[in-house]
User: Fold this.
Amino acid sequence: SSASLSLSAWIVVPAPTLALMPLSVAAPELSPWLIGFNAIACLLALVGIRRKWLQRLALGLGLVGLGLSTIPLLQLPLAVQQANAQLQANLGPSYEQVSQQRDRQASQSPNGGRSQPFVLQQVFTGIPASSVRYDSNIPFAKPDGVQLSMDIYRPPQVGRYPALVVIYGGAWRAGTPAANAAFNRYMAAQGYTVFAIDYRHAPRYHFPAQLEDVRTALAFVREHAAEYEADGDRIALLGRSAGGHLAMLAAYQPDALPIRAVVSYYGPFNLTAGYADPPEPDPIDVRAVLRAFLGGTPTEKPDLYQAASPASYVTRSLPPTLLIHGRRDHIVELKFAQGMYQRLQSVKSPAALLEIPWAEHSFDEVFQGLGSQLSLYYLERFLAWALR
Assistant:
């Protein structure tokens, strides 16, 4: 009982250190597993413990754990209702039509994508994988002698598909294009040519090196689109955390290549505000991460912080943007996503904010988890709408 309760507690307790972050991320995403563990603990307490006081203690612990582990599932129906309302209200009748069409396709074909926001069985069995064509380590640039490459995922059938350029996270200081491979394969199976790209890392390389690398990768994608069966006129950018930040920056530049849509999973928006108001607890030391990325503090480099903030570019209508964020994010707090969403709305730029009540930063690392399933469902429909 104590072990299952301890795991369940991470559904509501934020991780104080980076080492404990996996527990805070995984516990709510895999909460149906914890429901089972806590139910078994309660049953064992009832039938396996003879001393009354010990039985009551074990049963009490099991019931508390059971209550905690049900929180995400109890929050799910309202999250779905709010997500439906959010996207329909902000993207208009054409989104609703595309969404309904996508639902029909998904229900009629095993490879048609998700037909509903959440499938309980898949938390236990995983999201079914489909075979795709895969090319790894395709070089696209060598700035300052650093070889940059990308991994490319294509649908199983030869064709011409929308391009999805995926940028990994890692606080601008770590990561590879091989990250989130299950997601990339899934999206390729849904009819996208997925380009998972690389960029130079801090602290050796400060901003704007990372943005320059993303822009170089986009130019490569446009130039070689036909070779990889991609439609160079239908490109969407998607990133996670630092990658979400770079996706927005690249899409929002005044001289950006034509981008049809941008998706940010829990990416930073206003780096000056983020430095001034770090999360509590702060498991990655946000200020140290920003100093390593930008080479100083906002006081020392105010213009660089402004140039590196996606919010700075929201002065005109921009490509349609989907912001996906957990309410329990303790690295990039939800209030910054809400501020960015309001800013996009103020310039009448098509945008939607998908809030996931139980989710922590990097929640979709658990690919079959509740938050990942929910975000996949709406991501599929947003991209189908934006790239139609």
Notes: The longest strand covers residues 230-240.
